[in-house]
Here is the input.
Amino acid sequence: MTEIRSSDHSLIMKGAQKFDHEDWEYIVTNGETGRQPVDGPSYFYPWAGHFVSRSGFDRDAHWSFFDIGPWGSGHQHNDKLHLSVSAYGKDFLVDSGRFAYTR
Here is the structure.
């Protein structure tokens, strides 16, 4: 069975243009257009409790996502301390509940 993932590239590109963020364009085009961000490629979002670690902004970059945030107050998921890892174009650790909210 082939894994099918959705992509938000077009949505992010629209946001990059609307909000004049050439760095978002750089990330979504894997460095083909736009302007390279001055920070990153890894980011910690303390209020969300998420750490995204990347080896770069290119298409083949290795990345991991670590959920280290507190339990939510109004909306939460049972994925605390979740770790996803992707490298060499393959997913090694995935969120077993990862899916799109579609029909």
About this structure: Strands lie at 43-45, 50-54, 63-67, 83-87, 90-93. The mean pLDDT is 84. The longest strand covers residues 50-54.
